């Protein structure tokens, strides 16, 4: 039986279970694979590999044409109000648009690949780079199906199966290859190709089955279907905003670092960027973003208005900072030890760079929520306006590089870019909708982090290194949670909502 409200609390709780179990399983495997590859490949080849991964992420986002945002805004609306036939039609259109756009973009990249490899001095890796174009297309289809279709339709069980299968297959293939000979870059690319094909195939099959199950859903009599022009306007606004944001994205900076500072600097930046991305993906609001975004949209279009939307967004934003602040404190206390341990002592004396990446996550952790609020309230046009501040970031980065700041240059530009974006969106949302962020709660979280740092910076060194990392991390977490418990950054109503969602009175902060 199909639920009348797939975005209700009961449905959301079930989706969170599917989502978290899948994310935890894939996160563990992704982290293990990340640490394994950095040890298997020579430093130069690892620098090339992380650059290829960054370019894959860029290409998928650029070829998406903003369609994931179109789907995020309108698929929940269709699922709540439209007939099954109309939901199927919109989903098929989105899938066709995504597949064609990605195919065209991949073809253009293939045509320009020899020139790019010559420009970056990577002609020796042409076989791996060419093969990675296939990874780009297959993996791109899989990711876009997950983000644009399965997530807005609340099909996290299918997403979980797809992600876990991909990572399991990648791990198995890497393990098998390492038994026969020393790992090379092309071996990693081949393993990714097979794993991506299997994961994407499972995602598409799951989507097809779910759409077939919606055949009997009937349309609400008072619902008016959005015009296609209106939907594309939302999509293109978000697409322009994203293109401007790419100017200061870590993926673009990865390519610049390779060109300006060499493969070894690119390897260091790429490893730290990989950790940055992992942390960013598993902050609470980002971890659950594919569930939160449909919920935010549904809370606004379902009659809650800006009051309900703002309340949900503020709580999600504070949850992200609640997960991030202990990591920032630990990066300040023991970041150098952590990076040395994780990289197998390949990248030493990079603890402060890691701290810089973690600080850059503060504005980034709020950015997706700001974008979601702008889209949900019908002000998607604010996003290109805010993202235009990104035009200042590339010259800022180049100026900092010329001043000799090295890898600090992209980190500073990254943090400032996201900060400016958030400030512009906040200003106009407050002006147009009356939204107000929960500044008191945010200040309390920052205070808990500052006091936690002062209480743990004195921790003595321990041996072996892994024991020191684990003990210091535990002490930082205990200090932060204790201070946060004393000053209560979350309101009583927010604590009640979180405890109601998890069905346990465990959240006491």
From TrEMBL:
GO terms for cellular component: plasma membrane. It is a multi-pass membrane protein. Keywords: Cell membrane, Membrane, Transmembrane, Transmembrane helix. The chain crosses the membrane at residues 20-41, 47-72, 93-117, 129-151, 163-181, 239-261, 267-289, 319-341, 347-365, 411-430, 442-459, 465-487. The keyword Cell membrane applies. Its main location: membrane. Signal peptide: none annotated. It is found in: Cell membrane. InterPro entries: Poly_Biosynth_Transport, Polysacc_synth. This is Membrane protein involved in the export of O-antigen and teichoic acid. It comes from Nitrosospira briensis.
């Amino acid at each position: 039986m199909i639920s009348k409200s797939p975005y209700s609390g009961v449905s959301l709780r079930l989706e969170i279970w599917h989502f978290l179990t899948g994310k935890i399983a894939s996160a563990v495997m992704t982290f293990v694979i990340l640490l394994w590859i950095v040890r298997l490949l020579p430093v130069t080849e690892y620098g090339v590999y992380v650059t290829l991964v960054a370019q894959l992420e860029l290409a998928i986002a650029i070829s998406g044409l903003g369609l994931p945002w179109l789907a995020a805004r309108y698929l929940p609306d269709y699922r709540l109000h439209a007939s099954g036939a109309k939901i199927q039609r919109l989903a098929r259109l989105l899938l066709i648009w995504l597949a064609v756009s990605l195919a065209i973009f991949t073809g253009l990249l293939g045509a320009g690949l020899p020139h790019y490899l010559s420009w970056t001095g990577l002609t020796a890796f042409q076989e791996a780079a060419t093969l990675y174009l296939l990874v780009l297309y297959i993996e791109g289809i899989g990711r876009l199906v997950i983000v644009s279709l399965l997530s807005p339709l609340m099909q996290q069980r299918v997403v979980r199966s797809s992600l876990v299968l991909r990572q399991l297959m990648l791990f198995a293939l890497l393990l098998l290859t390492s038994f026969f000979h020393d790992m090379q870059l092309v071996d990693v690319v081949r393993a990714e190709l097979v794993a991506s094909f299997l994961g994407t195939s499972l995602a598409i099959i799951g989507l097809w089955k779910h759409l077939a199950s919606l055949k009997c859903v009937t349309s609400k009599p008072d619902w008016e279907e959005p015009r296609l022009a209106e939907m594309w306007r939302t999509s293109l606004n978000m697409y322009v905003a994203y293109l401007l944001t790419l100017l200061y994205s870590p993926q673009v900076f990865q390519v610049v670092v390779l060109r300006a500072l060499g493969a070894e600097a690119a390897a260091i930046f790429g490893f730290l960027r990989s950790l940055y991305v992992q942390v960013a993906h598993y902050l609470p609001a980002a971890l659950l973003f594919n569930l939160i975004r449909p919920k935010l949209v549904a809370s606004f279009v379902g009659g809650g208005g800006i009051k309900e939307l703002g309340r949900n967004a503020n709580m999600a934003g504070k949850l992200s900072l609640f997960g991030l602040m202990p990591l920032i404190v630990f990066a300040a206390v023991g970041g150098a030890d952590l990076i040395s341990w994780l990289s197998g002592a390949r990248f030493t004396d990079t603890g402060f760079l890691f701290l810089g990446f973690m600080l850059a996550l503060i504005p980034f952790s709020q950015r997706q929520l700001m974008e979601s609020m702008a889209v949900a309230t019908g002000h998607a046009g604010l996003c290109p306006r805010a993202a235009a501040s990104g035009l200042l970031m590339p010259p800022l980065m180049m100026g900092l590089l010329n001043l000799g700041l090295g890898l600090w240059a992209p980190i500073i530009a990254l943090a400032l870019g996201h900060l400016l974006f958030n400030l512009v969106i906040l200003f106009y949302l407050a002006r147009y909708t009356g939204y107000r962020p929960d500044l008191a709660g945010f200040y309390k979280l920052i205070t808990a982090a500052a006091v936690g740092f002062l209480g743990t910076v004195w921790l003595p060194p321990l041996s072996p290194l892994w024991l020191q990392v684990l003990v210091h991390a535990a002490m930082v977490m205990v200090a932060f949670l204790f201070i946060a418990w004393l000053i209560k950054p979350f309101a009583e109503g927010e604590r009640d909502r979180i405890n109601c969602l998890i069905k346990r009175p465990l959240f006491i902060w």
